[in-house]
Design goal:
With 748 residues, the protein is of the alpha+beta class. It folds into four domains: 12-187, no CATH class; 204-511, TIM Barrel (Alpha-Beta Barrel); 548-601, Golgi alpha-mannosidase II (Immunoglobulin-like); 605-747, Sandwich (Immunoglobulin-like), CATH 2.60.40. The chain is built from twelve helices and 40 strands. The strands form nine sheets. It has a seven-stranded antiparallel sheet, covered by helices on one side. A hairpin with a 6-residue loop joins strand 33 (653-660) and strand 34.
């Protein structure tokens, strides 16, 4: 079979092919084919008769077996593959020469397949597909390779099936400046299934505390200094003010993808300071370009904006004084390189997050480039385009915040925020109602709202009650309006009492990170989906599932110092006081201003880490197991590197904790950790906090050997192992250190 690629990039065939890719919700931004077929030396033996017409670089091409993370992608470069999609590991593949991108002839290489085979060409997402790959039956598989270039590149894998003994013809790279494509060959029909539908994980730093503002460079740097000196946090983004200090005075700057030089004289230096202080950085964006921007003409002249049936750009609307904007047409494969080129300078400075405003739809008077004319698909592509670029910038995982409008597969491109709420208790109730409608495949598992409300300015009580609630939401962010508020929600804008409570709850959020992040992994790895945070109605939220759960009842009434909590069946323990409540009824729970009702399900085992100022400041060592014995229960802790997408390919570990209080004794077991990932701890100190122990156990053993008893918690903290009974709190503390590959059991 000869691969024919006569259709150019604007052809109807190309559009139909592209429509097929994207209809499945897969990445559709970069393509590439890699033809290299010397007689195959691989075990699979699917590739034979590789012939490379680029004589200057042909010796750098070779057929390889066992595609894997760490492989050198090219024969003439040291770039390695940092991410290989699930199901592709171990495949036969063709290592090409990066310098072959300079070859401009029609046929770069050919090879034959010895059996029915699926051939995948991985092309650079930063550039439009070459014409031969945009047509001829190649379809986007929805999977990507990622390499280790200084600005890591993603390569979408485009697939075509060939019968045994067919000839595969590969054209040129389509760009002499982009990284060369790569080729993967697999037995026909072995394509991995599309994403499982379980929610994709964002970077681990997303589980920290996130801040946004409308501040200028001087104020941003001042904010960062204050935050890092006294508070915790992982992200700082600048909303629309990064473009202009005026909402209406310079509308053409919304959005020109450039910092306002008056407010931000040195954005690169500012972002570097943020990164040096362990803050990730992001900006607010629209999917539009104002006609006054210098980039508008390029988009208009190259059909990169949504057009009407006559080929004219349709006005996408806008605010801030805009009179005419063009909306990116994400169904045009040439739009992605254009959009990325506008954002590349930001990524080069250190950006890794996009806050995406508007509902994500395209103007109703327009028709899409690929003919699909689907608002649903356009919204998905809007999310996906920014998410994929964020993933590249972050080393494997993306994160965006979009409005909560639904679109197919939205949970594959996390996350969402609940929009512009009002700083009143009614506004808090409305925000909770909106959040309770999420946790679906067409919305997000990782969502948040503007803590304190967006419009108007919250008083201290409302700010405190709102932050107590968002401590337990999947993401927690602090942000407020520019024109009707203070442009931010930083703790120093409120009373000393509010600041103290802010520290208490944000630190609790960081201490619960092992539990919360593990629950996020459970949501990805297990079916049916067990969302890391779920709702009971619209007034209660629960962290965790199964044996280990934390129920939170937000306070939504001014002046309230207690709450009526409708408890599910079972036994529930007040996290703050230890009071035990029988479930299946409504109970009154005390809630002074520095406490929100937090009830722990009896039997829970809650892994908790050390105090942190940012998520990866230090590992979860020591790891505290906050245990509430009742019957036989267990919890499995999932861990991974928190950065790459390797967890999709099995790069994660599991450690199972169990507790049994039968026979008048409490036995706590820690299983040997299974699985591995980059950075996995080889040993760990455990601190068991065994609650509700009204009787002094007298003796504590580990694997049958008595442990040393100490008379105070401070003595135990100073020792490598031992135990202490706190009679006043009815808590037994046990400390020891073991290899993560070992199992152990403690009995008290």
């Amino acid at each position: 079979m000869l691969l024919r690629c006569s259709s150019g990039p604007g052809s109807s065939l190309r559009r139909l092919c592209f429509a097929a890719f994207v209809a499945a919700g897969w990445p559709a931004a970069s393509l590439g084919l890699f033809p290299t077929c010397l007689p195959s030396a691989s075990a699979a033996g699917l590739v034979a008769n590789l012939s490379v017409n680029d004589s200057a670089n042909s010796t750098d091409w070779s057929v390889q077996s066992n595609l894997a993370t760490g492989n050198e992608q090219y024969g003439d470069r040291t770039y390695t593959l940092t991410s290989v999609p699930s199901g592709f590991g171990g495949s036969e593949w063709i290592r090409t020469a990066n310098d072959s991108k300079a070859f401009t002839g029609a046929t770069l290489a050919t090879f034959t397949v010895t059996a029915d085979a699926d051939v995948y060409v991985a092309a650079n997402d930063s550039f439009a597909r070459p014409g031969w790959l945009a047509a001829g039956g190649w379809t986007d598989s929805g999977s990507n390779l990622v390499n280790s270039e200084s600005s890591p590149k993603t390569f979408s894998l485009f697939k075509k099936t060939f019968p045994a003994n067919a000839t595969v013809t590969l054209g040129n790279n389509g760009s002499t400046s982009s990284s060369m494509f790569t080729v993967v060959v697999r037995p026909a029909g072995s394509q991995p299934p599309p994403p499982s539908g379980t929610p994709v994980l964002p970077p681990k730093w997303v589980f920290g505390v996130l801040y946004g503002s409308y501040h200028n460079q001087a104020d941003v740097l001042s904010d960062v200094q204050k935050l890092r000196a006294s508070y915790s946090g992982d992200l700082y983004w600048i909303d629309s003010s990064w473009l202009s200090s005026s909402y209406t005075g310079t509308p053409e700057r919304y959005i020109c993808f450039e910092f306002d030089p008056g407010q931000f004289p040195d954005p690169a230096g500012m972002i570097q300071t943020l990164r040096d202080n362990h803050f990730h950085f992001g900006v607010w964006e629209w999917p539009w370009v104002d006609k006054g921007c210098k980039n508008f003409a390029h988009g208009r002249d190259n059909d990169l904006f949504v057009e009407d049936t006559s080929g004219n750009v349709v006005d996408a609307g806008g605010w801030h004084g805009n009179t005419f904007t063009g909306a990116f047409d994400y169904t045009n494969s040439a739009t992605l390189p254009f959009w990325r080129s506008l954002n590349q300078p930001l990524v080069d400075m250190g950006l890794g997050f996009f806050k995406l405003d508007t509902g994500g739809g395209y103007p109703s008077a327009g028709v899409l480039h690929d003919g699909s004319n689907s608002q649903d698909r356009y919204k998905t592509l809007y999310r996906k385009t920014a998410f994929d670029f964020s993933a590249v910038a972050n080393g494997g995982r993306g994160f965006v915040l979009t409005h909560t409008q639904k679109s197919t597969g939205a949970d594959q491109y996390p996350g969402m925020w609940t929009g512009d709420t009002t700083a009143t208790f009614d506004g808090l109730i409305a925000e909770m109602k909106k959040a309770a409608a999420l946790n679906t495949s067409s919305t997000a598992a990782y969502w948040c709202g503007d803590t304190g409300g967006y419009n108007k300015t919250p008083n201290d009580e409302l700010y405190i009650r709102w932050l107590e609630y968002t401590t337990f939401t999947p993401c927690q962010e602090f942000f407020g309006a520019k024109t009707t508020s203070t442009g931010a929600r930083f703790p120093w804008m409120f009373s000393s009492q509010a600041q103290t409570i802010f520290k208490k709850f944000t630190q609790l959020r960081y201490r619960l990170l092992p539990f919360r992040y593990s629950n996020a992994q459970i949501a990805f790895h297990n079916k049916p989906v067990q969302y890391p945070v779920h709702w009971i109605g619209q007034t209660q939220l629960v962290n965790g599932s199964g044996d280990s759960q934390i129920l939170v009842q937000p306070i939504t009434k001014a002046g309230a110092t207690s709450a009526s909590v409708a408890l599910p069946s079972g036994t529930w323990i007040d996290f703050w006081t230890g009071t035990v409540f029988a479930g299946g009824a409504t109970r009154t729970v005390q809630a002074p201003i520095d406490r929100v009702p937090v009830l722990v399900k009896a039997g829970s085992i809650l892994p908790m880490g050390p105090d942190l100022r940012w998520v990866d400041e230090k590992p979860a060592d020591p790891l505290t197991l906050d245990i509430y014995p009742q019957g036989t229960t267990s919890y499995t802790l999932y861990e991974d590197d928190g950065v790459t997408a390797d967890y999709k390919n099995g790069a994660f570990s599991r450690t199972t904790f169990s507790c049994n209080d039968a026979g008048g004794q409490v036995a706590v077991s820690i299983g040997a950790s299974t699985g591995t990932y980059n950075g996995k701890l080889t040993a760990r100190t455990y601190l068991l906090k065994v609650n509700k122990q009204a009787t002094d156990p007298g003796n504590v053993t580990r694997d049958g050997t008595p442990l040393t008893r100490f008379s105070s918690r401070s003595e135990l903290d100073a020792a490598p192992e031992g135990w202490f009974y706190d009679a006043a709190a009815d808590i037994v503390w046990v400390k020891f250190r073991i290899s993560t590959s070992s199992a152990t059991s403690v009995v008290l």
